[in-house]
Amino acid sequence: MASKSEPDEKTPLSQVVESNNDDSEEELQGCSGTAPCNPKSCLHRYFPVLVLICFLSFGSYFCYDNPAALQDTMIRELDISEGQFMAFYSFYSWPNVVLCMFGGYLIDRLFGVRLGAIIFGLFVTVGQVIFALGSLFNLYALMCVGRFVFGIGGESLAVAQNTYAVKWFQGKELNMVFGLQLSFSRVGSTVNMNVMQPLYNYIDQNIHGYKCLGIALFVGAGMCVFSLICAIVLSFFDKRADRVLKRKQISSEEMIKFRDILTFPLSTWLISIICVAYYVAVFPFIGLGLVFFEMKFGLTPTSANAVNSLVYIVSAVASPVFGFLIDKIGKNVFWVIIGIVVTLGCHMMLAFSFINPYVPMVIMGLSYSVLASALWPMVSLIIPGHQLGTAYGIMQAIQNLGLAVIALVAGIIVDQNGYLILEVFFMAWLCVALIAGVLLYLIDANKGGKLNLSAKARAIEKLKLDAEKSSN
């Protein structure tokens, strides 16, 4: 239990006492106004806080696509079908149909973002260890259990990451921060795509078969431990900042009631539909992309992995750039629609032409970066701060319901009908996302266009709201 001078995240504001003033002064002795140790400084927010937020999901993203990086190797060494292979993605997503929504609720109501991030980071680490052990002993069922446990923490950890970002950077920087944290996460995916197969080949010189695969997967567990350490260190800085800055805590009357979900505006649900319909056309495609590029374009496994990782490589660089530009320009809904349309065009090129696959995959990486940088921050514009964890959790839950089902269906389509039908299937989902995007634009415009305001208009509106609050 926190002392009176050290309120925790869930302490009502009425319980925060004046003794914090003395503690704050003691904390800041030796810290100048611009020092990295001073939570009042901009430098502290960017380093170390933003760096730690960005690395919070690094291990999770590195391990999520371990199967994609080793697709043909896993299928061969474990003697499984494409459908069984895609079950690794499905088992990751199934727990998050419910749990990441409750994860957001628990972050808002019970754990707080600090403890929540550490708990979910532990689930990710343990899940990856179980997955690696299953491969080491050639136990397919144990590998599925590992992916299930890994999934329990994976998406909820992303919810905690989003909540941290909003807590520290809500305002004009938020789009850039969302883009930057996405960038670092995709660095994890990119490293995975380009390291795991060479690592497997190196280990295979001495240890062969599924045991070699299991040892390679243990490298991912090490990455998860790294992210868990980041969560622990970040919790220290966040708690210290709450104390020093005397940041307002959620009062008891502001606490979310679970039934409040029913009062979320229609725009929230349309954003969730866009999220699921878009992401099911990207992640399952990457999960199956290695063999697709080998078969259609005649690439070697190493070259196919390089092409398959281009979406992650490009988004790692482009996401913070587009986030910064969207912060300066605004018009979030417009950028979301652009991202969907361009991604649809990329899938059409891959399905119906033999254009060098580097071209559509680079463009897809750019469009994915635009959409992700514009889509996720919109939730903070329409949902109160004390409900954000739950709102992001609902988005993740709906997204994972789609990914869980589509991952299985995609594997079955490849087994029975091949990759051309699979591409048509993905294009249909992008059309659903496009329809939801247009509806979001129309509904938002009817209500004053809050989500699609320019950055200048949004700043003026914020000044008006602040003036009204100060007058009251």
From TrEMBL:
Pfam families referenced in this protein's UniProt entry, alphabetically: MFS_1 (PF07690)
Basic and acidic residues composition-biased segments: 1-11
One Gene Ontology molecular-function label: transmembrane transporter activity
One Gene Ontology term, aspect cellular component: lysosomal membrane
Membrane disposition: Multi-pass membrane protein
Keywords from the UniProt entry: Lysosome, Membrane, Transmembrane, Transmembrane helix, Transport
Region listing for Disordered, in residue ranges: 1-30
Residue ranges constituting the Major facilitator superfamily (MFS) profile domain according to the UniProt record: 46-447
Main location: membrane
Places the protein is found: Lysosome membrane
Reactions accelerated catalytically: L-arginyl-glycine(out) = L-arginyl-glycine(in); L-alpha-aminoacyl-L-lysine(out) = L-alpha-aminoacyl-L-lysine(in); L-histidyl-L-alpha-amino acid(out) = L-histidyl-L-alpha-amino acid(in); L-lysyl-L-alpha-amino acid(out) = L-lysyl-L-alpha-amino acid(in)
Transmembrane segments: 46-64, 85-107, 113-133, 140-160, 215-237, 258-286, 306-326, 333-355, 361-383, 390-413, 419-443
Family the entry assigns: Belongs to the major facilitator superfamily.
Role: Lysosomal dipeptide uniporter that selectively exports lysine, arginine or histidine-containing dipeptides with a net positive charge from the lysosome lumen into the cytosol. Could play a role in a specific type of protein O-glycosylation indirectly regulating macrophages migration and tissue invasion. Also essential for liver homeostasis.
Subunit structure: Homodimer. Interacts with lysosomal protein GLMP (via lumenal domain); the interaction starts while both proteins are still in the endoplasmic reticulum and is required for stabilization of MFSD1 in lysosomes but has no direct effect on its targeting to lysosomes or transporter activity.
Record protein name field: Lysosomal dipeptide transporter MFSD1
Organism this protein belongs to: Biomphalaria glabrata
